[in-house]
Specification:
By secondary structure, this protein is an alpha/beta fold. It is about 50% helix and about 15% strand. A hairpin with a 5-residue loop joins strand 4 and strand 5.
Length: about 400
């Protein structure tokens, strides 16, 4: 154990030094036991034996352990299971870096945090190298096989500033699915460019190539061409246009004095119990408002079939599928983590954070179901069987 003058050190520093010394002692004990076990199991006559020690440093959660005595054998074959031959950091340090990065902490801020916690300086380049290992996981995750059936696919995008030659807003496409059992899952994300129907078509084709074959419903907003792109990949699926987006758009164009009354009348349409009742409520709304808001009422009339699709589905799941709220809550969390960085240095930075947030959500969602899907399970299975009959 090291000796130190307690008069010149505060309690936190004393504890830190004590933990470093204790950790060094325990690691060296484990290393001696490891090489002892290896040499005891050597075949008779091999003639291998200990050959002293070599010093090395190791960064840990308690700071840097200096002059760690690592034993070696005469043949140079011994390697410890505790760390790789040239590894300078224990796994826990790397995990801390990744967790900080996952929550949107920039590489320079991560370096400052580690210096305060561990007493060691990590350059932005070192932090980037640690997080770069995540990219291998990102690529594997983006190419993983997907389930065959999804009740609904929710499509939405957010926009982040990414530095290339200049700083520009680029789209992060997100696809969230709901299984017949009611589990949510982020199926994939795709970063780059501006949001477009062609971009979505490529993404949906990728999902199909990875195993998604049977989909009942696509839920998204009114991006031009998106409905056609979706139907080109999943022709047997229905389309649900987000009702809340449509209502907001209409309210933005209505006079302030009319907004409360018009909102109430629109609500009667999309809270109806059946499609027939909704059509009747819309007919009354049309007669009441068509002279004052002819363009908006005509738009509702044109879009009504895709705004009321959800009413053709079991009542127990309608609250989940008439709007994009499910995916918007997810996107809000991803945006929050991305927004802490003023602008991202490259696409890979956006991919790392989006991936780490996505797997966190998927792990949590795998343990719980949306309740309505359990209640409507038999009806949902019947819809799949009718729409996708076995050959």
């Amino acid at each position: 154990m090291s000796h130190f003058n307690t008069d010149k050190l505060d309690l936190a520093t004393i504890l830190k030094i004590s933990m470093q010394d204790l950790l060094k002692e325990k690691i060296e004990t484990i290393l001696r036991e490891e090489i002892k076990s290896v040499l005891e199991n050597e075949p008779v006559g091999e003639g291998n034996s200990r050959n002293g020690y070599y010093p090395r440093t190791l960064d840990t959660m308690y700071g840097r352990v200096e002059d760690l005595a690592v034993p070696r054998d005469r043949k140079g074959e011994f390697t410890t299971n505790m760390f790789e031959p040239y590894q300078r950091r224990m796994v826990a340090v790397d995990e801390l870096v990744v967790q900080l990065y996952q929550h949107g902490v920039g590489v320079r801020q991560v370096g400052s945090i580690l210096k305060n916690l561990l007493g060691e300086q990590y350059s932005p380049g070192t932090i980037s190298n640690i997080t770069s290992a995540v990219m291998e996981d990102v690529i594997e995750w983006q190419n993983r096989p997907l389930k065959k059936r999804y009740c609904a696919l929710f499509l939405d995008a957010l926009f982040v500033k990414i530095r290339r030659d200049t700083v520009a807003q680029e789209a992060v496409y997100i696809v969230l699915g709901i299984t017949p059992e009611g589990h949510r899952e982020i199926l994939g994300f795709y970063v780059g460019g501006i949001e477009s129907s062609n971009g979505w078509k490529e993404i949906l084709q990728d999902l199909r190539n990875r195993g998604v074959q049977e989909v009942l419903l696509g839920v998204f907003d009114g991006l031009t061409g998106l409905e056609e792109a979706f139907r080109s990949i999943f022709p047997k699926a229905d389309v649900q246009r987000c009702v809340i987006h449509k209502v907001r758009s209409t309210m933005n164009k209505a006079r302030k004095k009319d907004q409360a009354e018009l909102s109430t009348d629109l609500k009667k349409v999309y809270t109806s119990s059946t499609y027939v009742e909704a059509e009747k409520a819309f007919g009354e709304l049309r007669e009441k408002w068509k002279k004052r808001y002819s363009r908006e009422i005509a738009s509702w009339e044109e879009d009504l079939p895709v705004l009321l699709t959800f009413l053709r589905y079991p009542e127990e799941i309608q609250k989940y599928i008439y709007t994009t709220n499910l995916i918007e809550r997810t996107i809000k969390e991803i945006r929050k983590r991305l927004k802490t960085m003023n602008s991202l240095p490259n696409i890979e930075a956006a991919e790392k954070i989006t991936y780490l947030t996505s797997i966190d959500y998927n792990e949590r969602w795998s343990r719980r179901k949306l309740s309505g899907f359990g209640l409507a399970h038999d009806q949902i299975l019947k819809m799949f069987e009718e729409r996708y009959p076995k050959a």
